[in-house]
Every structure is written in C-alpha cells, then in structure tokens.
Write a structure and sequence with these properties.
Strand order of the largest sheet of chain A: 5-4-3-8-7-6
CATH class of the largest domain in chain A: Alpha Beta
Radius of gyration of chain A: 20 Å
Structural class of chain A: alpha+beta
Largest interface: A-B, 71 and 71 residues
Oligomer: homodimer
Largest sheet of chain A: 6 strands, antiparallel
Shape of chain A: elongated
Number of helices of chain A: 9
CATH architecture of the largest domain in chain A: 2-Layer Sandwich
Helix content of chain A: 40-55%
Number of domains of chain A: 2
DNA sequence: TGCTCCTGTTCCATTATTCGGAACTCGATT
DNA sequence: AATCGAGTTCCGAATAATGGAACAGGAGCA
C-alpha cells in the first residue's frame, strides 16, 4: 500500500516469475506435487503455468517428471552478458588489474539487495569458475558491496542499508546498521573498501567504487586473495591500483555513455 | 493452424518472451519507438508489456530510455547453470580431458536447432571466455553438433537435419542434407566427429557423442585447437581420449539418473 | 515566444485469457 | 480388485490484457 512497499504488480508475468524462481532456486529438483504444495495455488493453475514455462524453454522436465531450469535461460543470459556495455567497457581494465596484482579480479554491481558479479579474471582455472558470474552475494560483507554503497548519495545508501539483512558470516562481519554506515563513510573518504574475512574466512579483498552516470546505480572492482597472500601490506599496495582502475572505468563510462545515458542497471 | 505447425500457445508469456528475445538479440539498444515499430503492436500494449518486463528485472532501461537485457537473467542463468546435473557430472571429465590434451575442451547439448555450450575448459584465459557459455552455435558444422546427431535414433536425426539451415561458413562446411546424413552415419560408426575448419577457418576439433537417458536428448564433448596444432596426427591421438571421456560421462549419467530419469534437456 | 513534431506515458471500456474447482486417467500399492 | 497418489483435462466465473485515444513534455524552428 505504501509507495515504498514492494508490491509487484506485473500481473501474469509476476506469477510465472515467482514460479520460475521457486524452481530455479530450489536445492533439489521439484516434482509437480512439490511445487503445488509450496505455492498453495490450485492444481489446474499451477499445471498450466508450468506448461507454459516448459513450452518456452524456461523450464525443462526430464523423465523423472522433475522440473529444472531450462537452457533458454542460459541463452538469454549469454546475450545479456555479451551485450552489457558496462562489462565490455570494464573488461580491459580488469585484465590490467589482474596483470598488476596477479590475483583474482571481480567486477560487480549493486542490484536490489545484493551484489551481482558481472565478470571475473583469475589466474588459475577453478572449478567454480563460471558459477560466480550472475551470482548474487551479500552487500554488507563484500568489498564490492560496501564500495558500491559508498558511491551512492548517503540518503540512498542509508535506505538500502535499512533493507539489508546483516547476516553474520564470520566473526568480522559487520552486523550493525550504525557500524555499517560508519564503515561506508570511511570508505567514501578513503576511496576504497576492505573485506577482511568478513564474508568468508581466509579470504580478503580490496575494492573501489564505480559510480553510475545516474545517481541510483553503482558497482565496483575488487582484488581478492587468500589471507596468507593478502596481509595489510599487500592490501595497501593494491588499494591505489584498484582505485585507479575504478576511476578509469568510471571515466570511460561517463565519456562513452554521456550525461544522459547509463549503462549500469537501475538500482532497485 | 495445422496441428503440427509450431504455433506457440503460451498465451501472455509467449508474447512477453517474443518481446524479451527481440530486445536481447538486438544488435543495438532499442528505444521504445524501435520496439513499437518492430513488433507492430499498439502503443499501449507494448508499453505495458515492457513495463512488466522492467519491473521483473528481465529488462532494464537507462537514462537514454533504451531497453537492455536485465541482470535478473544473469541470476536465473547462474542458478540454472550451477544446478545443472549434466554439467556437474561432466565437469571432472572435462578437466581430465583438458589435462590430457592441453587444448580447449567444450561440453554442449543439442537444443532446438542449435548447439548450446554448457561448459568450457581452456588453458589460457581469453577475452571471450565466458561468452561461449549459453551461446548457441550451428549443428551442421560443429563437432559437438554432428556428434550429438549421431547419438539420436536415425529417424530423429533425419527430422532435425531437415529443419536445419545448412549455412556455409567456410569452404569445407557441409551444406547438403544428403552429405550431412552420410557424415552422421560415418560418425555413428566410428564414434567420433571431426570439424576440419567447417565452422571457422583455422579451427579444428574432435568430438564424441553423449547420449541422453531418453532417446530425444543428446550432447557431446570436444577438444578444439587451432589448425596448426591440430593436424591429422593430433586429431587421431585425441579421438580415443574424447570418445573415452564421452563414454564415461554417458555411463555416469545413466547410473546417476537411472533408467527413468534424464538430466539432458528435451530435444525440441 | 509560440508552434509543431516526435517521443513516451496514461486511461478505460471491450475483449480475451487466466483462474480454479471438480472430474478424469493411469500406475503403483495393499 | 480396490485404493491411493500423482499427473492431466475441462469449463463457467473471475480477472487481466488489449488497444484506441487522449495526455505530457521536450527539441527544433520561425
């Protein structure tokens, strides 16, 4: 009812997307009855909705009658990714940053109440290589998340922080709104954010903000490394490199897109 | 009108997906008027449909009023990819194959009238690294495409071939249905497929088929290399390695999924 | 300034689609 | 054979999509 409440009014599409989310985020493949139970909707309705999603290739159904996310999603995302101007502009700078530091480099943007990774450059092919792209991570305990918040107007940042679930991941995770706001203020002053094992034990990073052309979108670049390779000395050395890369990406973004354009996504 | 014609009857969803496809495959960002013109639908309708897609995050609109694919697509695809059983089962074998050959290894499945790449392992980080995942490639001139066809019942393969657009990419591309059927027969006999610069000049590959548990899905694994590193001798050495990897993936697929299950996507 | 054109947005009666309860089919189990 | 549970189909009632027309508002021009 309040204008700020997230009452999605996307009609039929909204219902179908809720269903698609349900299936695609389920830990285990779901059968018809599972879905029926979890939605609470009537049989006929759910059946027809799933049928439509199947026919469009957004879902698939194997011999076991379980529903799984469909390949159409991969195709759509492939287009989304390769045509993303922000990612394309940033790519060479990520490579450069990787070459300078030798560590893993990430590019991410703020979206809704999470950070979405748009790109990644790493030295060694890891098994989780592609899985990071498109993955949503928490804002309050990632370098990119905190850096991105610092690029927004304080008002906007405050509003977003108020909606976050400041879940604890490690014993250094910031779980208090006030402390987080202070941290963001510090980051805004210094131009870079640290993540000292706040999300994952043994993993540290330095990140710097990238401002969107509008005032409602933001992202960041980061250099991540295992704690034993990322002491305070290393973080201090990488910080200006990361800041520089972020600044140049911001610059090119502004130049390429002009004052009336934006390549970053709208913040929710 | 005819029952066999591919008249999608997915109601509202179908219309929205057509719109989403239009935007996401467009070479350049589209403005409202461009979309209006290309669809021919009335203004009010298109406007509301786009509004719904925006609100769901499937599309985004920047300051320039241009519509672009949204980050939601990346998130959905990320889930689809990481939960894909077929990909997960194949992953270690791809690594193994890469270790044995030192060249780029692909995993793909047949979907509709194209090959969708599900995974990739390569030695050197290339700029186009992620862009391949989810990308659709032609069937008739790729190793995986031809191998996958050979894993289907001849009848099914014939039907699919009949629907393909045998576009010429290089001077070795097979552009004749009969020749392609013969090629598939040979591949079925030998257990592996070659791509001798049929898709891209200077690129050759060996692929082997992976059969889905049902009789309507199929995929393949391939080793790809630049022509100067992939002479007939090398291809001959790699062929049994690729066949072996494919066979073991097929085996585990059958074992893990059982006789009544399938992790591969339904063929169109 | 005042005018026009082009673009994007909003409104609302009509129309087509979705909804959802109930009946139906089919296998597996007892 | 009967029962149960899972998946599928059907059709009147309820709801959402449609699309024509009116509304805003900015850029270019006289």
């Amino acid at each position: 009812m309040t204008p700020t409440s997230t009452t999605r009014d996307t009609g039929t599409l909204g219902k179908l997307m809720r269903l698609l989310d349900l299936v695609s985020t389920a830990e285990e493949p779901l059968r018809f009855s599972d879905i029926l139970q979890r939605t609470g909707e009537p049989r006929g309705t759910v059946h027809r909705q799933l049928g439509h999603l199947l026919e469009e290739g957004l879902l698939e159904q194997g011999r076991d009658l379980c529903y799984r996310p469909g390949l159409r999603l991969l195709m759509l995302a492939s287009n989304a990714w390769s045509r993303n101007e922000f990612r394309a502009i940033a790519a060479p700078y990520l490579q450069e940053l990787h070459a300078a530091t030798g560590e893993t480099v990430h590019l991410g943007v703020l979206s809704g109440n999470g950070v979405i990774y748009l790109d990644k450059v790493e030295s060694r092919q890891s098994v989780r290589m592609h899985s990071q792209i498109g993955r949503a991570s928490p804002v309050h305990c990632t370098g990119i998340g905190k850096a991105a918040l610092s690029a927004l107007p304080p008002e906007t940042a405050r509003e977003i922080i108020a909606t976050l679930d400041l879940k604890r991941f490690t014993d250094t995770t910031i779980t208090d709104q006030d402390l987080l706001r202070q941290e963001i203020a510090t980051i805004r002053r210094e131009g870079h954010a640290f993540d000292r094992e706040e999300h994952e034990a043994g993993i540290r990073c330095v990140a710097a903000p990238i401002a969107g052309a509008d005032q409602v979108s933001a992202g960041g670049v980061s250099v991540t490394a295992p704690a034993f390779r990322a002491g305070e000395a290393e973080l201090a050395v990488w910080a200006p490199l990361v800041r520089d890369a972020a600044a140049r990406i911001s610059g090119e973004l502004a130049a390429r897109l002009g004052p009336r354009r934006s390549g970053l996504s709208e913040a929710h």
